[in-house]
Amino acid sequence: MIDSHLHVWDLGPLPEPNVGAQPGSGVGSGDGQRPYSWLGPQHGALFRTFGEDEAGTVLEAAGVRGAVLVQADDTVADTHSMLAVAARNPWVRGVVGWIRLDTPSVAAAQLDVFAANPVFRGVRHLVHDDPRDDFLELPAVRESLGLLAKRGLAFDVPDAFPRHLGQAVRLARDLPELTVVLDHLGKPPLADSGAMDAWRADFRALGRQANSVAKLSGLHLPGVEYSAEFLRPLFDEALAVFGPGRLMIGSDWPVSTLGAPYGRTLEVLLELVSELARDEQDAVLEGTAARTYRL
Question: Tell me, what CATH number does 232's domain have?
Fold first, then answer.
């Protein structure tokens, strides 16, 4: 299989390349913020460096032959770091990086640099950490996402519920040439039946957009036991809405280690996927990721 959602990060100083920067834009310096500023001591065992050697060892032990690295910081430094990891490690099949979507001229310059690297296959922005509730509907962001579509690059949306799942629906509808990837099934509030109704309505609406795909990843949900039994309703819903041809499996490592070791995270997902026909399993385990990210 290909793990479609894996992170690496180094909490030491990152290089500060001057890619796509304009005077006063802060783009070259990653806006001057501490790398991975969302991550702190409150995250316990997650608050350390998770590097390429550890990631490679974890994948090899689980028999996973490749992975897609996904951004964990809204800085170009993080993107450069992932591309450097990819250059040293053949198990990296693709990179989903970050560009400044709210400034199209900067986004275009960054894409000129990053998209020249064949391993750069998509873009993500930490919308759940962005204070702008309407981020995905900002005209400037839409313009930049149009640039992604023209280059055949996918756009990942993390932790979409509750603020951004409805916006993801409208984005997929308004830009049918853009592949919209819903990370972690949109973070369904499985322990809250009332909120689940709202999630389900938007989730199904997104699934009706043919240019959308979803990741079976990041499902260590608050108040819910991480087991095939408890996740089966979500899996059945995802299968009914997207079908195996638009679902892909991902670990969300190392974030997932707060809930279970890598092997256990995959074990639960593979137990669910094993119920499918062989060709459907192949789609969820590799085919969808390969097609979505043009690996």
Answer: 3.20.20.140
